[in-house]
Structures are given as structure tokens and as C-alpha cells.
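FAQ: What does the model actually see?

It sees only this:
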Amino acid sequence: QVQLEESGGGSVQAGGSLRLSCTSSGLLVQDYAIGWFRQAPGQEREGVSCITRWHDGHPTYADSVKGRFIISRDNGKNMVYLQMNSLKPEDTGVYYCAADPICGSDYLEHDYFGRGTQVTVSS
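And it is asked to produce this:
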């Protein structure tokens, strides 16, 4: 069964940084658009960032994270990263990565998912 795995979450103070990682033992991340989503307690899951597949590797960001988050891919390590800088308390939530042929805003329409990693930002 193909599954994605996230890591790198943790607890930081506002203004701090974290780098999340997404990998899979069952697929090559370069062959899929990989999206990052997050869900805060009591809120719906929202898209944060996405990187398109293959050589394109075009990144997109939600307005709330533009200028603070950077998505990247390392094909040799089969990893997609989400570098999160200048973190704010409102960035708190469970972060998930998901794979699909194209970047999309609907998490549930993706082909493959991870179980999530918790990010907590304190003020």
C-alpha cells in the first residue's frame, strides 16, 4: 500500500522555524504533485503549498504563508520539504502531505496521503 510519511513537526515559539519532510517508500515524489495541507483544531483542512511534478517543480502558496514558507523537492532523496519561517500561532495544526498528478485544493481528491505531523507555535 502506497503511503506518504511526514516528519519534522514540533513545538516552537512565534518567529521560529521548522522544516517538514514528506517521503514515500511506494512512489517517487518527482512523479506527483505534492501538496501540503494543514488542519487546526475545530477548523477545516486547508491547502498550504504545492509543488508540481517532474521537471516543472512549480511552487504555489496560500496567501497566508507567502513569503514565509518555501516548498522544495530533492529527487535523489525522494523528499519534499516545507521550510516554515517566521512562524505564527495561527500556523498551529496538523500538517499533511498528499500526492496527486496535479496540484489541487481538495485534500480528499488526492491519490495518496500521510498521517500528519503536529506543528505547535506558541506566542
